[in-house]
Design a protein that fits this description.
Helix content is 34%, strand content 23%. The chain is α/β, with parallel strands linked by helices.
């Protein structure tokens, strides 16, 4: 069968995780309107047997990466290194943009790095559902002139438009090989990790400004019983004032986060869930090697 690895890269908040979820037809990566939502590389396993859509049996592992940006702390350095470290380790790179190359330095920074690698590159211009045709044409023209992309596609990951074209294009760069994972497996990330990410997603959705970026979630206990899964999670923040914001008046904010997270975790696990959450302060953890390692952001 055709097998291989595909890295999905781009600036923060261009729709990398949304595209991964659209390719798989299931949500394995959290998505919010806030930049830097993705902190770890998340692998989504796409398996498809030959039919009218793809003429060969196929298994591709799509690697969703953190948004590439100029780091402001050690967590930011880890996130950018995690993304750029995939460039030479995959069979193809999907680079996602949603604006003109001339609009700012972020995409130019990534383009300059991509120009240094020989890995085949597919450009995806995302959010075409919100884009006028003349704007799309300008973006297309700017990137086409660079001459470093094997294919340029317009996509709306949110609406699922042209997502199949991304899959078809990526398959062209895969080699014949053995199946990496069982055909019913869509991610190799453990359930505990996905649960912690769901909780962090709800925090991002409930909170504003700088607080969410200083939050980490650690699963302290995870016990599967016959009819219920009991989960204990600790939310770490960097300041005492942030702790109060997360908990909210009378604990209402934390209860809202917990209720929203529990409902999605129950849908993921297919069982009742008892979720307990605590909020603790760990000052400046984003610049602590020990804390980053404890939270799974460093080896």
């Amino acid at each position: 069968m055709k097998t291989g690895f595909v890295s999905i890269v781009g600036r923060p908040n261009v729709g990398k995780s949304t595209l991964l979820n659209a390719i798989l037809g299931e949500k394995i990566a959290i998505t919010t309107e806030k930049p830097q939502t993705t902190r770890n590389t998340i692998r989504g396993i796409y398996t498809h047997y030959a039919d009218d859509f793809l003429d060969e049996d196929t298994q591709m592992v799509f690697v969703d990466t953190p948004g590439i940006h100029k780091p402001r702390n050690k967590l930011g350095e880890y996130m950018t290194d995690a993304a750029t470290g995939t460039f030479k380790e995959v069979d193809a790179i999907v680079f996602i943009v949603d604006d003109k190359l001339s609009s700012g330095p972020g995409d130019r920074y990534i383009v300059d790095m991509l120009d240094q690698v020989t890995t085949p590159k597919i450009l995806v211009i995302n959010k075409i559902d919100k884009m006028e045709p003349d704007v799309f044409a300008e973006i297309y023209g700017e990137y086409d002139e660079l001459g470093i992309f094997e294919e340029i596609l317009g996509v709306s990951a949110k609406e699922g438009k042209n997502v199949e074209q991304v899959i078809k294009c990526a398959v062209e760069f895969m080699d014949e090989g053995p199946m990496f994972f069982p055909d019913d497996m869509i991610t190799e990330n453990p359930e505990r990790f996905i649960v912690s990410e769901i909780i962090r997603e709800k925090i991002l959705m409930y909170l504003q400004d700088e607080v969410p970026h200083g939050v980490a979630v650690e699963i302290e206990s995870y016990k599967e019983e016959e009819r219920i899964t009991r989960i204990g999670a600790v939310i770490y923040c960097e300041k005492k004032s942030h702790k109060g914001i997360i908990i909210g008046k009378g604990g209402r904010k934390l209860k809202g986060i917990g209720k929203s997270a529990r409902e999605e975790i129950e849908a993921l696990l297919g069982t009742k869930v008892f979720l307990e959450m605590w909020v603790k302060v760990k000052e400046n953890w984003r610049d602590s090697d020990i804390a980053l390692s404890n939270f799974g952001y460093k080896d």
